[in-house]
Sequence to fold (414 residues):
Amino acid sequence: MFKIAKKTLARLAVIFAVIFCLALIIPPARFIVMPVLKVPLYLFNGLRRNAAAILFFYRNRDRAERLQARIDFLLKTASDRKELELENQRLRRLLGFKQKAGYRVIPAIVIGRDPSNWSSTVIIDRGSSSGVQKGFVCVTFLGLVGRVIETTRTTSTVMLVNDPNVSVSAVVQRSRQEGLVSGSLGGTLLMKYLPRDCDIKVSDAVVTSGLTRVFPKGIPVGTVVTVREESSGLSRYAVIKPAVELSALEEVLVVIP
Amino acid sequence: MREKKFLAIVLCLALVQAAVAPSLKFFGVAPDLLLICVVIASLKMERSFAFLAAVSCGLLKDAFGIAGFGVYTFLYPSAFLVLLQISRTLVIDTAILTSAAVFCLSLALAGAERIVLGYLGFRIPVFVFLKIAVLQAAYTAVVVPLIGRLINRVARV
Fold:
């Protein structure tokens, strides 16, 4: 169908060689490009947020009213919990339990997302100059977000928990049933390798187990939506709704171990 | 002048792709705006400039993405060369044909991306890949007239 002359082939070879050389310099180039593009990314992200705020004004107002009512309720609950926590601390001290270490966090703003559809990553506005390192875990107040996979001086790339390349060792909060949670690039997560007789129900909360030491223990991952059987019939898996709305992520907290 | 305007549009669309397009996702898939730029440049601009535009698009997409090797810097110019060969035997001069070309190229690129990402260690399950590849190709093809009109209005291509 296509007749290509030798001269054209030689030209094509030169072109591909040039592209190949360019491709080889991409990783270091990114460390130069990202800090430069950080400001325009901020600008575009800000424009998007403002446009969404205007477009969805009535929905947002309705949501704000509902959330305010929920905040009032949660403040009351938090006050009760504080009492229990203090009591718990006093009793732990009496029994000689080791105190659980707290985590330091760095707040960061999401300024961009992976332009391809083949991975679920976001770019945040904190990099190695702020103390962020590869492998650090990202959370929000609602639950687990993902892990830092790359850092430049002023930005970092976070792979979200719904990416198939992230696996989290997790337990069902109620029954302590263990499983491995991984993503499928969609709006849900899968908790795999559950035994056939596992104690897991719809609406059960799933939290990180802390077994792999990558993710701290007890961070909410999501809630069980359905439990299904694997096609092999040997084990079951649960579909989990993430605790954090990953598609609408705007701020994250980077956990410093 | 129109070349400079075209490159400015490419930069803006790259920023839109990274900051805004994720909000316009349909079934979890966003259109590939930079591929549209590559196709329009290949069909309507000088070859040398179209090649430069394809490399620029690839560099920008690689800058925001996770594929460290420079996948798109390699794939977009390859798409330009394929389109160049096709346009020698088939005249692509209508919006529908351009959309069809974008659809086919997007599918082909998705296959290539899966191979390269797999080689780099990023796993994508088969069913997830098929769903995303088809939806992305269709969504990108649908957006072609809109982006085409924008480029035509700004850069007079």
About this structure: DSSP finds three helices and twelve strands in chain A. The CA atoms of residues 7 and 114 of chain A lie 39 Å apart. The radius of gyration of chain A is 23 Å. Chain A touches chain B through 47 residues (CB under 8 Å).
